[in-house]
């Protein structure tokens, strides 16, 4: 059976060619590469806001999500001249990589053409890649943890953030957890942001000791509890962005939600088949994130008070 003919998509003021548009990427419902591109067009402003000017690692699935997964830091060859990159340095190997730097929804659709399903941006931007402007709270359930427990912990996170005067923007992970993002002033390096994140995680653990742990080594964690993964704020650690599709057969989406949705939310409800309608009705629930900037200084004071020692990165 031959490949389906390519199609051209008008993406605002640009045109992106999608080859083999009928290739099935998500076997649960049979969605194709073209379906994936059209999904990203439907949430265009939201995905660009989530990725804008951040170094971005791509998770590519050339044969669909049941095939090989390629973790791509360097921009794939053949990019149009309008696709921007940002150069980042990896000290461990003394190497550089020119990573995708999204500024336009056409950049996202071109990445889909290159078989990208998931977008994993840094929490810093091209203007200064060493100073994060996004603090990420990753509620990572153990293998035997119920999602009810994740929901309970998310509400504790909301409570602590409110006391700090910080605005958290929650989203589903597209898998089994929840994420909360806080926009922060880019005044500190990754080490300080990670230390602040650990101080916050310890406070959440103190308030919900039956649901939360911050034990560093995975092998030592209780599989029934939620790990508040502060290490997602370490340099070059990335998680799927808001509106990123995940590489699962059901085509689940990491989806922004309201805090009042947390008690009943089911991440399985958000897929490329359902999120476009939700987005059309609600708009981007993270639209105000760049206007809610907060300083991590109170958390650094907590870290000093508690004499926190941050473990070496895993």
TrEMBL record:
GO terms for molecular function: ligase activity. Residues 32-286 form the DNA ligase D polymerase domain. Keywords: Ligase. NCBIfam families: ligD_pol. This is DNA ligase D.
């Amino acid at each position: 059976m031959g490949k389906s003919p390519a199609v051209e998509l008008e993406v605002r003021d640009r045109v992106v060619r999608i080859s083999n548009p009928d290739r099935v990427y998500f076997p649960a419902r049979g969605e194709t590469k073209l379906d994936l591109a059209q999904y990203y067009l439907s949430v265009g402003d939201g995905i660009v806001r989530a990725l804008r000017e951040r170094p971005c690692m791509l998770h590519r699935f050339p044969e669909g999500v049941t095939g090989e997964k390629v973790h791509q830091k360097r921009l794939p060859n053949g990019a149009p001249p309008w696709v921007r990159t940002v150069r980042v340095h990896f000290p461990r190997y003394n190497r550089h990589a020119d990573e995708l730097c999204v500024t336009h929804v056409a950049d996202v659709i071109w990445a889909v053409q290159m078989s990208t399903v998931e977008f994993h941006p840094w929490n810093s931007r091209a203007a200064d890649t060493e100073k994060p402007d996004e603090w990420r709270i990753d509620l990572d359930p153990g293998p035997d943890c119920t999602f009810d427990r994740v929901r309970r912990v998310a509400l504790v996170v909301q409570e602590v953030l409110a006391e700090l005067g910080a605005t958290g923007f929650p989203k589903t992970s597209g898998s089994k957890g929840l994420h909360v993002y806080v926009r922060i002033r880019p005044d500190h390096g990754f080490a300080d942001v990670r230390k602040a994140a650990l101080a916050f995680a310890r406070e959440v653990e103190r308030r919900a000791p039956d649901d939360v742990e911050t034990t560093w080594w995975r092998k030592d964690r209780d599989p029934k509890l939620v790990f508040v993964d502060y290490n997602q704020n370490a340099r070059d650690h990335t998680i799927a962005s808001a509106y990123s599709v995940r590489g699962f057969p059901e085509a689940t989406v990491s989806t922004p939600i309201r805090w009042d949705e947390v008690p009943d939310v089911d991440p399985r409800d958000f897929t490329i088949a359902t999120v476009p309608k939700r987005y059309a009705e609600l708009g981007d629930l993270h639209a105000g994130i760049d206007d809610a900037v907060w300083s991590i200084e109170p958390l650094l004071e907590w870290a000093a008070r508690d004499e926190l020692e941050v473990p070496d990165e895993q």
